[in-house]
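Subject: Sanity check before I submit

Could someone independently write out the structure tokens for this chain? I want to compare against mine line by line before I put it in a report. The sequence has 379 residues.
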Amino acid sequence: MKRDYYETLGVPKSATADEIKKAFRKQAKQYHPDVNPGNADAEAKFKEVNEAYEILSDSEKKSRYDQFGHAGVDPSAAGGGFHGGGGFGGGFGGINMEDIFDMFGGGFGGGARQRGPQRGRDLRTKVTIAFEQAVFGTTIEMSVNCLEYCGTCSGSGAKKGTTPIKCTACGGSGQVRYVQRTMFGNMQSVRTCDSCGGKGNMIKEKCESCKGAGRIRKAKKIEINIPAGIESGQTLSVSGEGDVGEKGAPSGNLLVTVEVKKHKIFNRQGMDIFCDFPITFVEATLGAAVEIPTIDGKIEHKIPEGTQTDTVITLKGKGAPRIGGKVRGNQYVKVVVEIPKNLSESQKDILRSFANSVDEKSYQSKKSFLDKMKDALGI
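---
Independent answer below. Compare away.
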């Protein structure tokens, strides 16, 4: 009696096409004759797995099998759907050959490519700089832990006074060729050499410093140029300052993410800088010459009399540049009129006297509001 096909592949009757394919690949790889040379039981199991997959991977045959069992796909039955017996040496019927080829590294006669020297890994780090350094640019020195060639063996991985030898398994090519038996006959395939990992050489006596790796991790000082105009969160790529590559391959890069400290006075948006500037009630009323802080230092500015709170002063060219650019943005200064507190009675009397002496027309915003209110309320 033949085993149930679902039992053969180890999947339930409700399994999807992808689950059936996954189960087939796993078992076919396990029982393939090349993996089990001379093992008759494994070859028989391989044929059984192929037969089960040919039926269950074909929707029409699967439907007949689900309805009638083996009789629905038996070649002796009318309209039977199984031809060729599946398995090794007897053909693969309706099995997609790619399902077999994919299990063995990309197909017969082609094979995996040689694993060449690998490029060094990129490293990531962060650096925090001051607000002014971000605007004008700066140079900083930082320590980075990265892989570098071992100084003892100069990167060879071999003990001092010795050298790596050519791999005897692959003859130094990093690849091995082998013959694969298929339904089309014997076919040659290429695979990365397991003995040397595709490097083409082997180390008999390993370097004591790097244990044969050829590279060691250590700290090194790197000077980083921060360009003027950089913003918080931007990342700089410093070429060649990551881990060194294998066997002369290029080094990776160092990726530096810049964080900018908040400023006590200034706030930046792109190329423009913003700040609030408090002035007294008297300065706002009478006008005054004040010193406004900028990223370049204090500058003198004339506050005109009657300046209202939230008035914005524009200082052209006092902002930040774009990275690589020379033109700078502007600084926008919002005037905040501060009302005095904790006045003495005599000071209050002076203000009351002042208020009584001022015509309402002097308060233009208030007069405009009162006029609008009268029109709206009809009073």
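---
OP: Matches mine. For the report I'm noting this point. Residues 136 and 305 are 35 Å apart (CA to CA).
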